[in-house]
Design brief:
It is a single chain. This protein is α+β, with helices and mostly antiparallel strands. The protein has one domain. It contains 4 helices and 10 strands, in the order H-H-H-E-E-E-E-E-E-H-E-E-E-E. The strands form 2 sheets. An 8-stranded antiparallel β-sheet has the order 1-2-3-4-10-9-8-7. A hairpin with a 3-residue loop joins strand 1 and strand 2. The longest helix is centred in the N-terminal third of the chain and has 26 residues.
Length: about 180
């Protein structure tokens, strides 16, 4: 009789811990990508290149890929101070004066850090609630890569020397950027 009570008690404890573990997992749902880890590495997990990648290598590899596959875009646009390398999925920027630093700005207009275009601003804030951020109005300066800054806002998350910026128009995610904070 004594051993049945102990077994019943142990079984009850196991059930309690099992359900408690399940509840904790439910509470932590949200973005499953460790944004801090990738940002500190200078990477977007969906992207082939990272911050600091050699600009000429990026140009050469994208040009070669576009020759082999029709759906890959290859465009290089030289502005007054910056150079854009575009492969249709990602936009890579570097400063002309600092070309030796490699790629210092990456923009994605699709899925970045697990957030799809169209995600509402509140979802991003909730998923990244453990991190400090600043919220700003979208301007020509912080959204130089956008077609329009009208009705826009940005969330910026700084991780040591790199910043992840989520760009919203009408509270809907339309682009994500990763950049070297001191360069930009």
């Amino acid at each position: 009789m004594f051993s049945k009570r102990i077994l019943s008690f142990l079984f009850a404890l196991i059930l309690v811990f099992t359900f408690t573990g399940c509840e904790n997992k439910e509470e932590k749902k949200g973005n499953s990508v460790d944004i801090e880890y990738y940002a500190r590495l200078g990477k977007m997990p969906e992207c082939d290149y990272s911050l600091g990648a050699d600009a000429q290598t990026v140009k050469d590899e994208i040009a070669k890929a576009s020759e082999q596959e029709e759906h890959i875009v290859y465009e290089v646009v030289e502005g007054k101070n910056n150079v854009l390398i575009n492969n249709g999925a990602f936009e890579y920027y570097y400063k002309k004066a600092n070309e030796s630093e490699g790629i210092t700005y990456i923009v994605n207009r699709d899925v970045a850090y697990g957030f799809e275009t169209g995600t509402v601003i509140l979802e991003v804030k909730e998923a990244l609630a453990d991190y400090d951020f600043t919220e700003e109005e979208l301007t020509e300066e912080n959204g130089f890569f956008m077609f329009s800054t009208e009705n826009g806002s940005v969330l910026k998350y700084e991780f040591k020397e790199n910043t992840v910026m989520f760009v919203f128009q009408d509270n809907s995610l339309c682009a994500t950027a990763l950049y070297k904070t001191k360069v930009w």
